[in-house]
Amino acid sequence: MTIEQTVTVTRRKLTRMYDRYAREVLDGYFEEDDTDEKVLIVIKELPPAEVYQKMRDEHFTDTVANLVARASQKFQELADELRDWYENLPENFQMGEKAMRLEEAADALEQLEMPDVPESVANLAVLFLPERRSSSRSGRRDEATSILEHVQGAVRESQGENDGEVIDEKTELGSFLGELEGAILHAGNVEFPGMY
Description:
The chain is mainly alpha-helical. The chain contains 8 helices and 5 strands. It folds into 2 domains: 9-56, no CATH class; 60-188, no CATH class. It is flat. The protein starts with 7 loop residues before the first strand and ends in an 8-residue tail after the last helix.
């Protein structure tokens, strides 16, 4: 009678085997090791690299409509955070420079207008691999603008713009792309005040 050996992998090795998204993509393949937080217990055979890559791309692919909504939600969450921060400042600080910067940033994010997604591209599939996991406000803003940039690129590519054909700005699609560009620039100009 043989005792089945437990197969484990460290988080670092998993990243080297695949990439930094492996833990999220292969979520059902592991259990946490209660004795060591750096180690994962493998409960399902790990896929070959080429299979993993298809799984990853599928995991991070969404529609244009969903991605624009996700970016919009991220901007709104940031605006809400800044507004709450401003409103919870003691009264004697609400007239200071930091308070003014907080209010300006919240206003800018609240005024950011997201374009309506044309039906012709609403269900277009877009692969968006998050560039980094940042909890800072500017990092989360950058991720939201990156989502919009990916959408913009995918729409342009789907319309053959990379083959030299330029999308007319007067069309619904051209207007959508222009409004996306405006939202990207607007969000990129928002300055977040520091904590102190």
